[in-house]
Amino acid sequence: MLFISKTPFVFFSYSVIIELVDDHFEGSLRRPFNWKSLAALSRVSVNVSKELMLCYLIKPSTMTDKEMESPECMKRIKVQEVILSRWVSSRERSDQDEL
User: Fold this and answer.
1) Positive or negative, the Cα torsion across 64, 69, 75, 80?
2) pTM over the 0.85 mark
3) d(CA 4, CA 16)
4) Ordered structural domains, the chain, with CATH
5) For 83, what's the count of Cα atoms within 13 Å in the CB-facing half-sphere?
6) Which GO terms fall under molecular function for this chain's record (predicted)?
7) What is the predicted pLDDT for the residue at 47?
8) pLDDT at 3 over 60
9) CA gap 62, 22 in Å, rounded
């Protein structure tokens, strides 16, 4: 579930980055990552009480650009999500104290 609805408003629980890749996880990334940029994105997400989700849309290598123009292509695209979380020692200690 991408959102939690405890109020009349809907608040999403994730900051989402979406990348289109082929079935070998190759493709031109819109936003190339390194450890520093991932740490920064994770920290920003935590500061706004969200988790960082990387969402990969995996298209078959055999799918043509022409096929991608139609919504029918969604039937062949797979989704792989990765949720990144940052270990925060003070938060972990307080969680352990509650146990």
Assistant:
1) positive
2) no
3) 15
4) 14-98 (3.40.1350)
5) 9
6) nucleic acid binding; tRNA-intron lyase activity
7) 86
8) no
9) 9
